[in-house]
Amino acid sequence: MMQTNRLDGADDAFSLDHSYGDPYEKNLFQQAVYSHGDPSDSGEFHMNPGDLIALTTKNFNGTYFGENQATLVYGYYPSYKVKPHPDIFVTAKQDNTQQFVHEADDED
């Protein structure tokens, strides 16, 4: 029983919506804090500090899968080398292209 290990087992609960591709959830973006150079041949990509990463999947081994918006390359990257970037999301234009929107821009 989880109550024997913790006061409230709900503290360890988290949503699986993004992991399983909830179509109504906003795209999650992260910003690279550390460079990730010379990736191994395990499907990882190169990133520099400041690169914007579109998160696709969180893996339980400490890696994430996503697209580096600077290089437009998909791959795995270490989760500890990025930080959340919650104020950016993507909207679709009428010509089926994407544009980045800052939530701060909506206040005008």
TrEMBL record:
InterPro entries: SH3-like_dom_sf, SH3_domain. Residues 25-87 form the SH3 domain. SUPFAM superfamilies: SH3-domain (SSF50044). Keywords: SH3 domain. It comes from the Eukaryota. This is SH3 domain-containing protein.
